[in-house]
Amino acid sequence: MQILSTVAEVQAFSARQWSTGKRLALVPTMGFLHEGHLSLIREGAKRADGVATTIFVNPTQFGPTEDLSRYPRDLQGDLDKCQSAGATVVFTPEPKEIYPPGFQTSVEVTQVSQGLCGEKRPGHFKGVATVVTKLLAMFRPHLALFGEKDYQQLQVIKALNADLNLGVEIVGMPTVREPDGLALSSRNTYLSADERRQALALSRGLKAAQALAKAGERDAQVLLERIRGFLTDAKIREDYVALVNAQTLQPLLRLEPGVPARALIAAFVGKTRLIDNLSVVAG
Ligand code: AMP
What we know:
The protein is about 40% helix and about 20% strand. It is of the alpha/beta class.
């Protein structure tokens, strides 16, 4: 497994891939890797000749009061995991390599970035869209894999890839969960044992809403109240709870047969902000 740390090295690597006709998959991450990340690397290895993983805690997607400085890191552990999952290249740049002096360009996706995390974390998706565009431009992969765990982010990346004609196949992968339902997240490491139990309310609330919809409930308010009941019982503070069109991310008042819908939550468990989402189908 090759380790790259400069943009020039990445561009030289990409040029070699293209000249030899090899298909490349890209898996961008912020590190502290878990099975969710590794599922993306393994799938990339199945679909392409090589998989590049990036490990970069992107400062521009963190707000001023967020957890940038204490975001968990374990570079050696991550490199071992990348290797065993089948990554062929890992890119671990310093922030100044990505944002050198004079850097002044950003990418903003105006529609699907609105609402949800876009509203609660101003500037977050501008940071995400800019860094992902840079990674796609320097690697020029055939495909790039992202988790549905960050559902709005996935829609933002699909939009920028289409709008900027980057020509990458964007693959969304299902959320990997603990056996009890908690979605894997690097931020779960912040949770105390009690908070870990409280955090189950997110996946349980979403599952309950999904089951209620399957049983015939169409009213968004009823479905959202079901989710909120789980958060309240677990004494978790809601950041948002929403039922939206799965493609446009516009809020829905009612489920309609044939219109794919998604229920999404962001909530604070203690000081830790967790997100989760699930598809909801009208029964
Ligand atoms: P992050 O390191 O949190 O920026 O995540 C890097 C990539 O891994 C993103 O595409 C995430 O959506 C994806 N990811 C994070 N958690 C999970 C999970 N539990 N299951 C599947 N993919 C995930």
